[in-house]
Amino acid sequence: MYKKSLYTIKSNKKIARNVYEMILDGDTSYIKSPGQFINIELNGFYLRRPISICEYGDDFIKIIYKVVGLGTESLSKMEENQTLDILTGLGNGFKVERSGDKPLLIGGGVGTPPMYELCKELIADGKTPTVVLGFNSKDDVFYEDEFKRLGAKVYITTVDGSYGIKGFVTDAIKEEYSYYYACGPLPMLKAVYNNVNTDGELSFEERMGCGFGACMGCTCKTKTGSIRLCQAGPVLRKGEVTW
């Protein structure tokens, strides 16, 4: 189930190159698990913008988004106390109960944000996650300190080697883990799928029209048949994924 509500912007700030963090005040009762997303209506744009949830509480939602077009550029210019029409409670999320005793969290670029709420919930459940975050360059890195403050073990990779481990997220995965959770661009997800032997869950980024399964625009194939990714996803279990 999802809900359409108005939310008030409490803050909207730049935290890395072309990356912004926004905190929204409003109803979060329809958000049930980390990995779900919201769909934001922007004046002057026909389609809403789907953005993953970084963190939520009783009365706030935190999102992190990258400016990649006119819609997100418009969002980045919005100010405190402005309101947004948002659909919440969209998609299915990560299953915390599958983590085992040694979970691995993998975020690539703006696939990092949903890992934060997941990390919080795993730590609240008595687990100590290892977090691997991949970026192109030092200027793109964000939330390293925030994950460390939660109590996670954190590794950063950059493609150009300007910060952390040079290479991709798979270059930082040297141990065996009980379960993994991953979100990021398709090439990263495929590399994780092929190189991390344990079972896991992958959150896919996809262009979505409605965000709740009506338009069929995000239909994709899995091993068990076609699904609407905004509804049955964006999180799929490793055994469901087909390339």
Brief descriptors of the model:
243 residues; alpha/beta; Elongation Factor Tu (Ef-tu), domain 3; Rossmann fold; 7-stranded mixed sheet
How would you describe what is shown here?
The chain has 243 residues and is α/β, with parallel strands linked by helices. Helix content is 16%, strand content 37%. A seven-stranded mixed β-sheet has the order 10-9-8-7-11-12-15, sandwiched between helices. It has a six-stranded antiparallel beta barrel with strand order 1-2-5-4-3-6. Strands 13-14 form a two-stranded antiparallel sheet. The protein is globular, with a radius of gyration of 17 Å. The model has no long low-confidence stretch (mean pLDDT 93).
Helix and strand layout, with pairings?
Layout: E1 3-16, E2 19-25, E3 37-41, E4 49-56, E5 60-66, H1 70-76, E6 83-90, E7 103-108, H2 113-124, E8 130-135, H3 144-150, E9 153-158, E10 165-166, E11 179-184, H4 186-195, E12 200-204, E13 219-222, E14 225-228, H5 229-232, E15 235-237
Parallel strand pairs: 7-8, 7-11, 8-9, 9-10, 11-12
Antiparallel strand pairs: 1-2, 1-6, 2-5, 3-4, 3-6, 4-5, 12-15, 13-14
